[in-house]
Amino acid sequence: MSVTIRDVAKRAGVSIATVSRVLNQSKPVSESLRKKIMKAVEETGYRPNAVARSLIHKRTGLVGVIIPEIYNPYFSGLVQGIESIAQQSGYSVMLAVSGKSVEQELEMLQIFQTRQMEGVILASSRWSREHRRWFTQAPMPCVIIGRPAGSLSSVCTAIIDNRKAAYEAVRYLIQLGHRRIGMIRGPKWDRASGEERYAGYRDALREADIPPRRQWVAVREEFQVIDGYQGMKQIAAAKEKPTAVFCACDRIAVGAMQYLEEQGVSVPGDLSIVGFDDEELARIVTPSLTTVRHQPFEMGVQAATMLTEQMLNQQKMGKEAVLPHQLVVRNSTAPPSE
Amino acid sequence: MSVTIRDVAKRAGVSIATVSRVLNQSKPVSESLRKKIMKAVEETGYRPNAVARSLIHKRTGLVGVIIPEIYNPYFSGLVQGIESIAQQSGYSVMLAVSGKSVEQELEMLQIFQTRQMEGVILASSRWSREHRRWFTQAPMPCVIIGRPAGSLSSVCTAIIDNRKAAYEAVRYLIQLGHRRIGMIRGPKWDRASGEERYAGYRDALREADIPPRRQWVAVREEFQVIDGYQGMKQIAAAKEKPTAVFCACDRIAVGAMQYLEEQGVSVPGDLSIVGFDDEELARIVTPSLTTVRHQPFEMGVQAATMLTEQMLNQQKMGKEAVLPHQLVVRNSTAPPSE
DNA sequence: CTGTTAGCGCATTCAT
DNA sequence: ATGAATGCGCTAACAG
């Protein structure tokens, strides 16, 4: 059996209340008893049970975090940012990996609720009516990362302006002189990296009066290197070839470049490539990748900061933090050769 | 106020015991009451409080995980593996990032204990007498990843044979014909990636009767790309140059290659490079990296499996899982040119 | 200053 | 089959 406050009290010859008082320094206790008690604590190796404390105070000191996967540096950056703020605010984080499944996510949200999380951060790409319902009824403050919270007024969000960022990236290609520009995009159910970045791409084309071409847009379900490879393969199969391809993320861009290298297509000589995320990969690949930089770590920090703020005030609010992004020009882009 | 079992009981016109019984299906309850209660649960949106349950059952369903950082794919792979097993065993994961500080880690272990974790997994590089003490007295089963647990008989470990793996990598260089082989190694306080891989390097040299050269060994405190860059710079400053360099990890290898490229040294023409980890980077960098593959995800799975096994049996044990590794030959290595 | 007591929310005896 | 009562480990209000 684990040692309880009662064991300590007995050993020190005092009441449990007195033990509690010295451990929490909640009330003055005579020096003599204090010493006896500390000695008993030492000898028994007593550690107060945080579960019992939580039950009394209705404060668990726990925040729940859900991410679809952790292997992607974007998500691990988020987690690291969240964890650092949580830690320095005295909170512990419960991490759940949803694997992109809506059902899993909802189940985790339920678990977070029964486990009395004081705050919840969700960094997910999927969204459903049940999600919406859950966040509406959730008793604790919540922050959603990476996608607007819709009309939810009691939920904070930390995002970047994906549409604008994508628009700027494609505009840069147009300014270089490109007019035949393709895109390897993410899935339609992914609001941020799927839909919004595609919308930004369309914005830039529209602004330059460039009619969009179906054959130059490949839709992928995942954001892995292989998706870039397959997406580029699909686009390359079109009769007329684009001179530039904007990719929904760096991994896709790398995969695209791998396919092009296999086919003997020179980057950026024959085809320019732009990525998104500026993960470490982007600097290391050859040629180094022109891409959109943003800061997942900082995003996690912001999200956790908004959350702790709400937890302190004991009330939910609906702030939106839009983090900066920036086009980083490297060596995978050049004016078209013709 | 949050809704409790009492509210449900009142609303359904029954005692709290009956509500508890239908929710846990612990005893038969008449169909009529059962329906009334379920209705009351629906209407109130009642969720049982897991904290109160934990207090009764002395089971929190929580496992604590400590990693030094999450940004490195090795650690995120571990976490993903652990999380997947924990989840399917009905446990939730509390994640703590220690930032390599011994004090932080010890504090987290204390927190894990007060928070009544049912199991603890530590993937750390540092070690101290206090660590040892903590694991000896810890009431819950523990698994240490990445380093032998010393003489701790009640702690499981999941490791790879770093020394042998490093030995094989360097032996491969020797078989290619190299005799002037350097190493960019990790810090001395890092048992696995620092000391053991260096020991393996020395083993291979010794076996081939190659005297070690101080100038060809660079010691780095971190495992980042910049460390490889600086380490290679240091080694390149030696009067006589090596023809091959074994690196303690892939990032270091990439950094080394970046320096060499800047200096116009061809890889593998003038100098061969071997990495360690086989992270995604290794396939993508040019030239692609010869490296030692192992499986962090699988390691996390093994660790979590050993942990859940112990938690089920309610007793600690001292198993050791040694996971496989494998040299993957790519394009960064070749016979020496002379 | 110190001890006794009443819960925190729930599961589980023990009665009925 | 159901309800009342006890207690998990601890804190806080109440007495002394």
Note the main sheet of chain A.
Answer: 6 strands, parallel
- Contiguous helical run count of chain A: 13
Given the helix and strand composition of chain A, which structural class is it?
alpha/beta
**What integer value in Å does the Rg of chain A equal?**
26 Å
SSE arrangement of chain A, N to C: HHHHEHEHEHEEHEHEHEHEHEHEE
Strand content of chain A: 5-15%
How far do the termini of chain A sit from each other?
79 Å
Biggest contact: A-B, 46 and 46 residues
Strands side by side in the biggest sheet of chain A:
2-1-3-4-5-11
How many beta-strand runs of chain A? 12
Q: In terms of quaternary structure, what is this?
A: homodimer
Mean pLDDT of chain A: 96
- Poorly predicted residue ranges of chain A: none
The residue fraction in helices of chain A comes out at 40-55%
Shape call of chain A? elongated
